[in-house]
Amino acid sequence: MPKPLQISVVIPIYNNEHVIEELSQRLISELNSFNFEVIYVNDCSIDKSSQKLQYVSSLYSQINYINLSKNVGQQKATLEGIKKAIGKKTVILDGDLQDDPKLITHLYTKANEIESSVFVKRKGVYQSKKRMITSILIKKVIQLMSGLHYKAGSYYMFDQYILKKVISSASNCKHPYMSIIVAHQSKKIHYVTAKRGKNLGVSGYNFRKRIKAALMAIYCSAYCIYSRSILGLKNIVLQ
Q1: CA-wise closest residue to 92 among 183, 197, 213
Q2: Residue pLDDT, tens place only, 37-63
Q3: CA 128 to CA 26: how far, in whole Å?
């Protein structure tokens, strides 16, 4: 009988053809002491990402991929990968190699409580000053709503108990934002601090898309608060 998977790594991909091979090699190398899977979700890339994913999956048995039939955005693409994850812990990682795969081991070590999550807290300057200021202001608002530290990014790990709640909540939310939902569904949030590297891929986020993503995150956090209060009221009525 095969051993249960310890870790599922979910990676949304959009036009990341130039880093897929290196990212895959580093994941295989860093996680060789674990029983794990890697799930790439190709969000209808217009470059050669699909061919690269087919290639790396032929090289490594741990790698699987999903080709979406239409572009749904990073968050919904991530959700599709989460739905396929079967590891005891699921980690979300961007596909641009800006975050070091080595940190997965640190996340796993820290994720030792039921219904807890671990986020990578970014340090240093990893984007322009203007973008940093805008990002901090928006994330401060989200921190007040969700409890998620404003320096936490899109690199995080959570357990199977949270995974089921996340899928349910995200599937019913018009504009799901996965890290926000994970934060709201976590009984406790832990952090690992690390410096971000240089983006080796091409950023798909211009100013307009960043603002749209920020509004989506705020909406999602408000939805989580609202849905939790409704469930609380239902429980009171049932009791």
Answers
A1: 183
A2: 999 999 999 999 999 999 999 999 999
A3: 27
